[in-house]
Amino acid sequence: MSEKERISFGSKLGVVAAAAGSAVGLGNIWRFPYELGQYGGGAFLVIYLLCVLLLGMPVMMSEFVIGRMGQANTAGSFRKLAPGKKWWIVGLMGVLASFLILGFYIVVAGWTLEYVVQAVGDRFSGRETATLAKVFADFSTDTFRPLLWMALFTILTGGVVYAGVKNGIEKSTKFLMPLLLLIIIALGVRSVTLPGGAEGLRFLFQPDFSKINSSVILSAMGQAFFSLSLGMGCMITYGSYISKKNNLQHTVVEVTVLDTLIAVLASIAIFPAVFSLGINPAQGPELVFITLPNVFAHMPGGYFWAILFFVLLAVAALTSTISLLEVIVAYVVEEFGFKRHRVIALVSVAVLFLGLLSSFSLGIWSDVKIFGMGFFTLFDNATSKILMPVGGLFIAVFVGWSLDKNAILNEMSNEGKIKVGYFRLFMFLVRYLAPIGIGLIIINQLGFGKLLSLE
Ligand code: PHE
Question: Can you give the pTM of this predicted structure?
Fold first, then answer.
């Protein structure tokens, strides 16, 4: 596709909605709370916020700059901006990361559909924690049922990506994000007012710094990259669809604030309930699927809230999976000239295969281990703890050291039309702090073997 023809997001709100749609997803509502629960509550939150501010925001800006300057998919943008150099490999790494993320993400996204159906069937009311936990365990370890939902979810994703950037991605996110925000606030209010809920708020907001160690820091950093969709070319790909008139600085701030807000609000909805109900906060991936049905079961109008919540969670997941699929599809279509619909179909099949491995690793293949982990955990850890931070490191180095400084300023200021207040700070962060920070956090874990076997 020539540069002139390249499609772009229609409006300013559309840009924010699409990028926020990618960022806000299961990472905020499903993954963030359980990581926080496993890694010590408030202390994790503090480190997470630091990572978002000092590493996430500069990397997001870098990705937008690369994408909007390069006007191509993730590998193509690097190739155009650094012809004859090997930087495109960073883009390719992102394509691989997208595959692996989709490989476990669609499983959890499928779970949300199952829970929509359970909510519609009024399966939460009157049930206690133990029963809800058993329902989840039976379902998630089942051989076939999760596969059906996962397949349906993948078809939905492919359909939206097929409809294209403007019609599919932009329209579907614009209205649903604000709705999701509202329902999480309502849930938070309910949860905080449960008896004993204050304990949960203390767990969340009173950091116990003695709990910090190198794996807490690595997990918080990985979660920041995962939640903001960074380090794997997603924001490069979306950046290439952002019009030259859009203010990148505002977009970075808006997306980051919204994403962080939703993660924190989701935790406010979850932890007071966790403590009130006596659930173990370090429960793991099932945390949300046991806690929230419990809250709905004891909430006035809980039946309707539950349906609305799981529908919106599925939609939030969908706006993330479409961005993941778009990274791969844009790459294959632009670099190899294949037809879009064919690529979507082929990639979906490949992703379903990975999804099957992930889903089986929780049930019938629970004893199949690679580096001591099942496929689900392997795909999750390999991406959030290695590929995404390493990708983010290279992206920062590329912008900090390889791109021309004036060209960057030009891009960020829309050719001098808007003021770039923090340019020197930005350059400092991408040149020094982000690469050194990410590098140290990874090295701190002493080698890949140990890194991989992290829970
Ligand atoms: N940020 C998404 C979430 O939090 C996940 C994601 C990661 C999406 C990477 C795109 C790219 O759910």
Answer: 0.95
